[in-house]
């Protein structure tokens, strides 16, 4: 029996998108595939397949991955959740800025201010 669709297609979590998000967070945090695999209790090849979008984790495995990455479920499922917590955005931006110079941070702040002021027009 086919699954009954309950919402728009954009609300369906795809293995490819989930894997891409997990890989992105893992690499931003400089965590190796092996470390995640060891923390979760799966083979390294499973994490590689997951990140490639070839596998989809069980709920328990997804929770273990979230814990191993040290993020919230909101951050992993950000594209599929309609109510966003600003802490998720702050966390993502904070990781991106971790290696930035003071000059880069000043320029980024200027870009943000410009974008926010344009939104008010």
Could you please describe the fold and organization of this structure?
The chain has 121 residues and is an all-alpha fold. 63% of the residues lie in helices and 0% in strands. It has helices at 15-28, 33-40, 44-52, 59-69, 73-76, 86-97, 102-119. Helix 2 packs across helix 4 (59-69). It is globular, with a radius of gyration of 17 Å. Mean pLDDT is 84; it is low at 1-8.
How do the strands and helices of this protein lay out in sequence?
Blueprint: H1 15-28, H2 33-40, H3 44-52, H4 59-69, H5 73-76, H6 86-97, H7 102-119
Helix pairs in contact: 1-3, 2-3, 2-4
How much of the polypeptide forms β-strand, as a percent range? under 5%
Q: How large, in whole angstroms, is the Cα Rg?
A: 17 Å
How many beta-strand runs?
0
Describe the largest sheet: none
Number of helices: 7
Produce a short descriptive summary.
The chain is mostly helical and 121 residues long. It contains seven helices and no strands. The longest helix is centred in the last third of the chain and has 18 residues, at 102-119.
